[in-house]
Amino acid sequence: MGVNIEKVFGENVFDDAVMKVRLPKSDFEKVKKLMYEGGEITEELADVVAQAMKEWALEKGATHYTHVFQPYVISGGAEKHDSFASAPTDGKIENTFTGKDLLMGEPDASSFPSGGLRETCRARGYTAWDITSPVYVRENTLCIPTAFCSYTGESLDTKTPLLKAMHAVSKQGVRLMRLFGDEKTRRIFSYVGPEQEYFLIDREKYLKRPDLIYTGRTLFGAMPPKGQEMSDSYFGSIKPRVKAFMDDVNVQLWKLGITAKTQHNEVAPGQHEIAPVFSVSNVALDHNLLVMDTLKKTASKHGLVCLLHEKPFDGINGSGKHNNWSLTTDDGINLFKPGKNPENNKLFLLVLACTMAAVDKHAVLLRLAASNTGNDHRLGANEAPPAIISMYLGDQIGDVVEQIIKNGKATSSLSSGVLNFGIKKLPVLEKDPTDRNRTSPFAFTGNRFEFRMVASSNTIGEANIVLNSMMAEAFAEACDALEGAEDFDKAVEEYTAKLMREHQRIVFNGNGYSEEWPIEAEKRGLPNCKSIVDAIPILLDESTVKMYEKFNILSKAELEARKEIFFEQYAGVRNIEALTMVDMAKKMLIPVAVKYTGDLADTIIAVKEAGADATVQTELLTEVSEKLAEMKEATATLEEVTAKAASAGSNEESAKAYKDEVMAAMANVRKPADELEVIMPKKLWPMPTYGDLVFEV
Ligand code: ADP
Ligand code: MG
Predict the structure, then answer these.
(1) Pairwise CA distance, residues 460 & 79, whole Å
(2) Cβ(469)–Cβ(547) under 8 Å?
(3) Residue whose CB lies within 8 A of the most ligand 1 atoms, among 259, 324, 333, 337, for a mutation test
(4) Would you say residue 74 has pLDDT above 80?
(5) pLDDT band of 54, cuts 50, 70, 90
(6) Read out DSSP for 115-177?
(7) CA quadruple 653, 659, 660, 662: dihedral positive or negative?
(8) pLDDT in tens, 599-630
(9) What angle do CA 572, 317, 671 make, to 5 degrees?
């Protein structure tokens, strides 16, 4: 039976409605003000809020509370639970939770990646309540979203710089609004709607694949006779077992105040998507982490496993996360909305020009923000989308930009018109001003940009730090250029045209998967970082440091640390993959191939003794033996190059060695193994095949 969404929505959230009932009116108003305008909460007020929270949480069955934080580069959230139990008096305890417990936590930060930002002996980390993201009860625990920083104040997470970037874009955006005569706007919100892709496979089968268990992706596996070539998975009918899983996930998310909205089967067999309604970026970040965690935990409950890896299976599509992003004023003006006559919408055109400039200038940084080790198998590997950053504007806006580039201004815009199915009983629909371009990493979709590169298992924090910071910078530069202009209208027109001319190379409306595009992009001078490893150094590029320092979002020391962490993580992930591969080759695949050659040899002798022709058996034995020898040798080489990469001098050198040498050596082990899988009897193959994994849920 379905549930009534209205009834369950937000049931486990300490939201405005709950606060209104449980807090004294004046305190409620103070908290609301802090939530929307920022400022420091007094310990007195925090005590009142904490008391109300505790009572509410106890009624919901909570026994513990935790600050939830997001250590840098660890994809999920981190939590450290404390029970409400006080020290006993006369053998009795009391449930306690104070304002101080709410405001601040102090997890030992020494075991999180720090990139050398602090020594292990200086381990203190602090979490501070992010009052703008709601508190909730989950799994008997009161969860408090927080930001995480070190004793010396450096941010150790993704949340802190995101909050700073949101603040910066808001401040500079308001400055821009004032130039256009708007006196009302007090804040600009950056909104995000992340579409999350994932795979579901059977848990029993998963447990037979060490590669999936240790690395989240398959390291071996031949293509089954059927892949995704029939396009019969995308939007296909949802299987009952998957539907039961989705229903379960949705109810849990609704209770947490997450607007789970859209769900469907994706392109690859076994692949699905879930998308919530968009929300303010930091809340969207927290919610997306909860979505990922809920998907994983609920899958286990249903005898399934949810794979969030970007490329769990070679040969079929991988997963991404589309980051739908927009900037909107507190009274609802969406800066990316062109309106009916975009050619006359000066604010929109200026914002668009700023976006073009920002994307062009920070292309590599954007690419990096969307990247992790897993995403290297998609970006730059002929899969959606390519590693080259470009912007798709669609026919209507693309044409307006072209007019401005040519004539300094636009005088008309193509109307999108209506769509007539030509059947009387069907309605005539008004068309969207842009068609969809599935091949563009950064596509304008009518009132927002869809940044389609983000890694499926990553947080969306990184991407939105860059998006909001780069816009803050572009807005600030526009304001610097335009403030005090004598003829404002003329100055805006000229500045818009100037930016569009300078950055027109970033616009590409064609097919991003075509062979011509990388060649054309190179001619335009657009960067093409095939691997995350090539993109990491951009963190210390002058353009990056200047932008982040200008708005106090990340310091050079923090960026240095992040660079080290990126390299370290890349090397770490590849090392686990290589070791897993060696382990599987030695303990699972080589032994079964050896056994099979033995069986074949016995058969050959028996067949010959029986006086029959054993040519076929002999040919097969030769073929299997050759591949076996190839795999054995490749495994030895992989072991060698992995050990070498692991002992390279710096994190950067190590990462490069894994990218070039270890990856090549892994491919050499995989090739004969996959060929053996194809020729050997299925009952001898020691693990479920691709066919078993993706088609049999
Ligand atoms: P698609 O058809 O591209 O797969 P979906 O419906 O799956 O689109 O997801 C689109 C996402 O974009 C949703 O999360 C939606 O809430 C979000 N979105 C819509 N409008 C905006 C906006 N103005 N700003 C940010 N996100 C938005
Ligand atoms: Mg979608």
Answers:
(1) 19
(2) yes
(3) 324
(4) no
(5) very high
(6) TTSS-TTS-BEEEEE-TTS-EEEETTEEEEEEEEEETTS-B-BSHHHHHHHHHHHHHHHHHHH
(7) positive
(8) 999 999 999 999 999 999 999 999 999 999 99
(9) 65
Mean pLDDT lowest among 144-158, 439-453, 504-518: 144-158
696 Cα to the center of ligand 1, angstroms: 31
Residue 320 near ligand 1, beta carbon < 6 Å: no
Q: Most confidently modeled of 96-100, 235-239, 434-438?
A: 96-100
Token pair for 695? 């088609």
Residues 198, 91: Cα–Cα separation, whole Å: 49
What atom in ligand 1 is closest to the CA of residue 436? 3
484-509 pLDDT, tens digit each: 999 999 999 999 999 999 999 999 98
Confidence of residue 73 (pLDDT cuts 50, 70, 90): low
List Cβ neighbours of 215 (8 Å cut-off, separation of 6 or more).
309, 573, 576, 577, 580
**What are the residues whose beta carbons fall under 8 Å from the beta carbon of 232, sequence distance 6 or more?**
none
Is the CB of residue 448 below 6 angstroms from any atom belonging to ligand 1? yes
pLDDT, one tens digit per residue, over 414-431 is 876 666 777 777 777 766
- Assess whether the C-beta atom of 436 lies below 6 angstroms from ligand 1: no
- Residues 6 or more apart whose Cβ sits within 8 Å of residue 557: 117, 154
| pLDDT of res. 405 | 97
Decide if 281 contacts 162 (C-beta within 8 A). yes
SS3 222: coil
Give the residue, out of 278, 287, 444, 454, with the most ligand 1 atoms within 8 A of its beta carbon, to mutate for a pocket test: 278
Distance CA 187, CA 206 (A): 48
The residue length of the chain stands at 697
- Residues whose CB falls within 8 Å of the CB of residue 364, separated by 6 or more in sequence, listed in order: 389, 527, 529, 535, 538, 541
Residues contacting residue 86 through CB under 8 Å, at least 6 positions apart: 93, 94, 95, 96
Per the model's pLDDT, the better-predicted residue between 88 and 622 turns out to be 622
d(CA 167, CA 101): 26
Scan for tokens 């703008």, then name that residue.
Answer: 132
- Could you write out the DSSP letters of every residue in 494-534? HHHHHHHHHTGGGB--S-TTSSHHHHHHHHHT-----SHHH
- Catalogue the E-assigned strands of 346-421: 391-392, 418-419
Look at residue 109 in the predicted model and tell me its pLDDT.
Answer: 72
Answer yes or no: is pLDDT of 121 > 60: no
- Tell which residue, 176, 133, 170, has the closest CA to residue 469: 170
Q: How confident is the model over 304-333, as pLDDT tens digits?
A: 999 999 999 999 999 999 999 999 999 999
Q: 193: Cβ below 6 Å to ligand 1?
A: yes
